[in-house]
Amino acid sequence: MAPKQTVLLLGATGQTGKSVLDGLLEDGNFDIKLLTRPASVDKPAVQAFKKQGLEVVTGDPANGADELAPLFQGIDTVISTIDAQSQHVQLSMVEACKRAGVKRFVPCAWITICPPHGVMRLREHKEVVYQEIFKQHVPYTIIDVGWWHQISFPTVPSGKVDYASVQKPNVTIFGDGKVKSILTDLRDLGRYCARIVRDERTLNKFVYTWSDVLSLEETFKLMEDLSGEKIERQYVSGEEVLTRADECFKVLEKDPTNFAAMLGSYGGEYSYSKYIRGDNTPEIGKYLGYLDAQELYPDFKPITFEDYLKELLAGKAKKVYEHWDL
């Protein structure tokens, strides 16, 4: 039996990080350590990890590679699920991985498929980290996951699914609604990750995960069929999406702490990329050089969007980003 791989995970208290942690634990082939900033050590979620028997390592990427490199000694794989606004601090993680001889660095990707420049500013921020990885010759795997089921469903007039929606109402169709886009259930993200990081075929590769490739109209129609309710759609043109996003970016430049502007700016560029340009598809992924997780792991049975909607309509889904109420 092969020895367990030692993984150090940053960001386990977030939505993506929790899924990754759950996937690694479920897989059972990993010794897991959690990298936590000193300011977060006493948080209830971190204390809960300790009670589970997980080792918590204290360190802050913002303090540089000199602090991190000793912590990375003996680590096979470092996985980052850092927040969207802190991408740049991963540069110190790249340097620490290089010094410590880490065998694989999984930087914070976890987004939709998109060209590296000129479409989404968030993707451009991530590219800065990727280029540093390439410059340092650090072994890597970059994992993108499309859009989660948990933030992809429309709401219905009865309010039956409002309990799990981060936006109420959510009835917007971008463009003509016919452009297809990759979807992955958040819970499968971690399960896929566990497969990917112990697979030599994915070393120094980009990989995308998915369960469905659906247009907005298809997701609305599926919700209508399963719920028996008619959804009144609100159409927004691609030009309007970009105009709104640019307005939010202007606000964000003046006040980087403006949460609504951050969501509006990044969210607008996501929507334009996915639903107008059509970037988030298997075809574009392969064009950009990605490996397809379903082709790598044909035995893996992802949670489909239809399965998720049935769970949602039965009142059994869980809201992500519980502190959001848009």
Features:
three-stranded parallel beta sheet, 13 strands, 12 helices, five-stranded parallel beta sheet, alpha/beta, 16% strand, 326 residues, single chain
Structural class: alpha/beta
**How does the overall form come out from the CA principal axes?**
globular
Any idea what the radius of gyration is? 20 Å
Portion of residues in helices? 40-55%
Low-confidence stretches: none
- Indicate the proportion of strand residues: 15-25%
Give the strand order, joined by hyphens, for the main sheet.
Answer: 3-2-1-4-5
Rounded to the nearest angstrom, the distance between the terminal CA atoms is 49 Å
Mean pLDDT: 96
The major pleated sheet works out as: 5 strands, parallel
The count of helical stretches stands at 12
Number of strands: 13
Give, in order, the helices and strands.
Answer: EHEHEHEHEHEEEEHEEHEHHHEHH
